[in-house]
Amino acid sequence: EFNDIGGNLDFAAQVHVEAHKERWGLMLDFTNLQLSDRTEQDGYQVKTDSSTTLVEAAVLLSSVERGRSTTTVLAGARILNVDLDLELIPLGGGEPFVAADGSQTLVDLMLGLRYTYAINDDWELMLRGDVATGDTDFSWNTTAVLGRSIGDSGELVFGYRYLNVEFARGSDLLEPTLVVSGPMIGYSFNF
Questions:
Q1: Rounded to 5 degrees, what angle do the CA atoms 94, 99, 105 make?
Q2: Is residue 171 pLDDT above 70, yes or no?
């Protein structure tokens, strides 16, 4: 959560791309978080660097359109890669040593729904929920986004995302649960 990692966040980026033809579409969502931490514990400086990359790819089918609202089914994959480097540096001097250095990639099948409602000609609300399982025990994601049209070229978007990933027992490098949540702001380009 942002309150937990905000002070340790080195970099964050998210890119979402969609293409549509009639009722069908494709979606690709890319998120990258770079975190680092330096603490002192038991006579050592503990230096931690991690990179988490999340890629979601899905086929979209706009299944129900009623007036100003559209319900879309999405089916695809959620791919999660975590790189972790943990180094211990003796406080009194001496050679640092690597306590952990590795990477793990997990792939889940994902199924979800997205509801879009055009509030008026300028404002739009989008709600998304999905679940996934495979290499992880289970993950679920919810997103709420409010968009404000800026001419024909795109819209300014404000939203909130909550992603919860439960890892399978025995996963290398990973805590039992990963939660990524927080506000988002961005610009959506229309072509």
A1: 150
A2: no
Strands (E), the chain: 9-21, 24-41, 44-66, 69-90, 97-118, 123-134, 138-150, 154-166, 177-189
Q: Do residues 31 and 182 make contact, with C-beta atoms less than 8 angstroms apart?
A: no
What's the pTM?
0.82
Question: Tell me, what's the pLDDT at 69?
Answer: 96
127-133: long-range contacts at Cβ-Cβ below 8 A with a sequence spacing of 24 or more?
128/74, 130/74, 132/77, 132/78, 132/108, 133/108, 133/109
Q: How far is CA 135 from CA 81, 139, 190, in A?
A: 12, 10, 35
In whole angstroms, how far apart are CA 21 and each of 14, 83, 91, 137, 151? 24, 37, 60, 34, 22
Q: For residue 4, what pLDDT is reported?
A: 46
DSSP result, 87-136: EEEETTS---EEEEEEEEEEEEEEEEEEEEEE-SSSEEEEEEEEEEEESS
